[in-house]
Amino acid sequence: MKAVESLIGEHQLIARLADALELYARQTKQGRPTDATHLALFAAAFSDFAECIHHEKEENILLPMLSRHGVRWDDGALPAVRREHRQETYLIDVLRQAGERAACWSNEDRRQIVAAAQALVDFQRNHHALESRELFPLVAARLGAGVRIAKSAWRCEASAMSDEVVPIDTHPDTLETKRKEQP
Ligand SMILES: [Fe+2]
Ligand SMILES: [Fe+2]
């Protein structure tokens, strides 16, 4: 399904971001001179793309749609994914705070930054593994045979979305969204 392919494509982009952050953390750990301002840029990139775009799709579109097609909201994959999204928000926040005191790092600062960065990297890899293993197969199982239902449901889903996000394409096989342009 194109919807899953789209989400997997975003996972690949987030994974490359995680690889870059891991390299940054490794260089910081080795004491090599790293640009401290890049830490805030990493936090902003994870927040803007992984949180505000990718997880918005999962939380506001995919999970409610699966729930309406019989997947338990309060047990199994759906609450696990929602719980991990809360954890990701926390980990990005920790990274952002580390970036805010970027002027001159002590050895303890460096240790904390490396730990925060590696925690976010490890989290992303485990989170994507969870979704590939437990969430995406549900899309094919519950929605694959019901595309006509999904098509009609899509407009309802889209109209129920938050004011912050609007659909680019109302076809249910694409979960492409964009932020509503600010006036
Ligand atoms: Fe997710
Ligand atoms: Fe995801």
Key features of this structure:
single chain; 183 residues; Four Helix Bundle (Hemerythrin (Met), subunit A); elongated; binds fe (ii) ion
Helix/strand/pairing class, anyone?
A: mainly alpha
Q: Which cofactor or ligand species appear?
A: fe (ii) ion
Fraction of residues in helix:
over 70%
Gross morphology is elongated
Outline the low-pLDDT stretches. 146-183
* Average pLDDT: 79
CATH class: Mainly Alpha
Instruction: Look up the CATH topology.
Output: Four Helix Bundle (Hemerythrin (Met), subunit A)
Major pleated sheet: 2 strands, antiparallel
Number of strands: 2
Strand content: under 5%
Q: Report the span from N to C terminus.
A: 35 Å
The strand line-up of the biggest sheet is: 1-2
Give the assembly state of these chains: single chain
Q: Report the CATH architecture.
A: Up-down Bundle
Radius of gyration: 18 Å
Give helix and strand order, one letter per element, not per position: HHHHHEE
Q: CATH superfamily, please?
A: nmb1532 protein domain like
